[in-house]
Design a protein that fits this description.
Chain lengths: 227, 89
């Protein structure tokens, strides 16, 4: 299970598929740190579960950045991210009585948010994963033929802003799989279960997303511009 | 002819790449990569993107009035006995 890796505040993040460097997750607002002692969080959750409105407000204050940021990553739109953050906390309020502590609270809440995003995307008619589409070559991502000896490599030259922009311009289904795997750290079987698709399909979507990002970054690069 | 054979090999390798990458195996010793600089460069690019992804999207602050909206929605829900029946996590 990937309990700790889903928590941006977690100090321990396991190795990822490609590469071994430690992940430096952004930290929560130091003015409002998460309870250092797990018993503090448990106590807060107990108060929320007993219907303490003030405790729910405290919980919101502690978790709002993580959830809003996650929604922003997944939908790339401020208004939608606000709506989805609101929906996530409404779901949290409805379901907090069912939380038994079998997983970390942060993991549980993270999944609530992802489910809210997925439901929203499905309502909008997004076909997340199509087997046919996943297995077909992607004309927008380049191929072996287009990757010539004179093409610039990206190694060491990725600008974070350019990559974020390229991610935001990915088709929604590609972006979703890329964010869940490469940014949030979910494994393929977990993503496949969330999206109700095969693991192979999920791998293919991720690969196509990365190829599109590579094509976008190469077209952005100064070397490419000079050609 | 040799060039065509190399292109085919690249296409075959790249067709298998999603599965190879998803397996988590070390591809450095893959036979195709040993003699194909283009596919080595492609793989290096994909690794660079995946590693850069970890640094993306810093935590951002939601607008202050979002809590007021949530609070208002909670009050409406509490005033009404009906709950969303299809809202399982």
């Amino acid at each position: 299970m990937v309990v700790s890796r889903l928590d941006p505040e977690s100090p321990e993040l396991p190795p990822r598929r490609l590469g071994e460097e430690a992940v430096q997750r952004p930290q929560a607002d130091p003015a409002k740190p998460l309870p250092a002692d797990p018993s503090d969080e448990a106590e807060l959750l107990q108060r929320v579960q007993s219907g303490d409105h003030q405790a729910f407000a405290e919980l919101y204050s502690l978790q709002k950045r993580r959830i809003y940021s996650l929604c922003m990553r997944m939908v790339g739109n401020v208004a939608e991210a606000e709506d989805l953050t609101q929906e996530t906390f409404l779901q949290l309020h409805r379901k907090i009585s069912t939380f038994r502590g079998d997983s970390a609270f942060s993991t549980w809440l993270h999944r609530l948010a992802i489910n809210a995003v997925l439901m929203q995307l499905r309502k909008k008619g997004l076909s997340l994963i199509s087997m046919d589409e996943a297995m077909e070559p992607d004309p927008d991502s380049g191929s072996s033929r287009s990757f010539g000896a004179h093409d610039p490599a990206l190694i060491g030259s990725i600008d974070r802003m350019a990559l974020e922009r390229a991610v935001s311009e990915l088709p929604a289904g590609y972006r979703l799989v890329f964010i869940l795997h490469d940014v949030e750290g979910y494994e393929h079987p977990e993503i496949a279960a969330m999206l109700d698709c095969s693991v192979g399909n999920c791998k293919s979507q991720l690969h196509k997303a990365r190829l599109r990002l590579r094509a976008a970054l190469r077209s952005d690069s100064p070397q490419e511009s000079r050609r | 002819m040799t060039q065509n054979a190399e292109i085919m090999a690249c296409e075959q390798f790249q067709a298998r790449l999603p599965e190879l990458l998803g397996s988590g195996k070390n591809l450095d010793t893959h036979p195709h990569l040993r003699h194909c600089p283009l596919c080595r460069a492609l793989l290096a690019d994909l690794e660079t993107i995946a590693e850069a992804a970890r640094q993306l999207f810093p935590v951002v602050e939601p607008p202050d009035d979002l809590w007021l909206q949530i609070e208002s929605a909670l009050q409406k829900e509490e005033a009404s006995p009906e709950r969303d029946p299809g809202s399982d996590a």
